[in-house]
Write a structure and sequence with these properties.
25% helix, six-stranded mixed beta sheet, alpha+beta, 292 residues, globular, Nitrilase/N-carbamoyl-D-aminoacid amidohydrolase
Length: 292
């Protein structure tokens, strides 16, 4: 491990296969590379086990959390390498009709420290004909999750969650110093919004943001943006990937969290307020959720 205060974080950038077995082989190889380069904490992308858009094929290869071979292998790998291994998410069987998109934080002893089910479903129609209905196959989560690392608390999120800043503020107000956003952003939305959204979440909360990404043209012809990022609490990019699979590392100093929050203590300044519609009259005031 890197010392009591600082540590090395690594983002594993993948191009997940249609099937779990080759995806696991790729992920294991990259995690080993990250550990060999000195990583104490390693994050993989969203859907690290398979990138399936076809519902029939997806459900043919889904396993429950208890039976999933990828999760078992990654737990053994974390124990072998003595690292905190964060599997950005795995597609798992939730019920006969639904999967779940679940993130796992694994300790250096191979034990599960936390898991999180993606709350916000990616149901959109993009210009040019791209269309996604994540809710057709996946059951959304209902609970935000925060967990402990040796260097501070970490808030778990996944991909499309990044467009909902209230989630990140809630995690920061609950004590998170690090926010994780493992993703499979489309190339189109990534080019437009990826850097802006992630830097904004870091600046708004005074947290480090760790975002491991899927990258490139997949077997199912979906194209993901890549550009895995490590961002400090001031919004500075410490490490960035390109569009090919690989490992991207940065030294993390948790003291920067307190420094940023002292400089701009916005987490302490949140207030409740109302939104008035002059046309509707004062009886139509809408309470906007904010910090107490």
């Amino acid at each position: 491990m890197g010392g009591d205060s600082t540590f090395t974080a690594a983002m594993v950038q993948m191009r997940t296969s249609l099937l779990p077995e080759p995806s696991l082989e790729q992920g294991m190889k990259l995690v080993r590379e990250a550990a060999a380069q000195g990583a104490d904490y390693v994050l993989t992308p969203e859907v690290s086990n398979m990138m399936q858009l076809n519902r029939k094929a997806l459900f043919e290869h889904l396993a429950t959390e208890e039976d999933d071979k990828s999760l078992k292998a990654y737990r053994a790998l974390a124990s072998e390498l003595k690292i905190h291994l964060h599997i950005g998410s795995l597609a798992l069987r939730f019920s006969p009709e639904k999967a779940v998109n679940r993130s796992f934080l694994i300790g250096p002893d191979g034990n599960l420290l936390a898991s999180y089910d993606k709350i916000h479903m990616f149901d959109i129609d993009l210009p040019g004909g791209e269309s996604y209905r994540e809710s057709a196959n996946y059951q959304p989560g209902e609970t935000a999750v925060i967990s402990d690392l040796p260097w501070g608390r970490v808030g778990l999120t996944i991909c499309y969650d990044v467009r909902f800043p209230a989630l990140y503020r809630a995690l920061a107000e609950s004590g998170a110093s690090f926010l994780t956003v493992p993703s499979a952003f489309t190339r189109k939305t990534g080019e437009a919004h990826w850097h802006i959204l992630l830097r904004s979440r870091a600046i708004e909360t005074g947290c480090f943001v760790f975002a491991a990404a899927q990258a490139g043209l997949h077997e199912n012809k979906r194209e993901t943006y890549g550009h895995s990022l490590i961002i400090d609490p001031w919004g500075e990019i410490l490490a960035e990937g390109g569009i090919e699979p690989g490992v991207f590392l940065a030294k993390i100093d948790p003291a920067k969290v307190e420094t940023a929050r002292r400089a701009i203590p916005s987490l302490q300044h949140g207030r409740r307020f109302t939104v008035a519609d002059p046309k509707a009259g004062p009886e139509h005031l809408h309470l906007v959720r904010g910090s107490a």
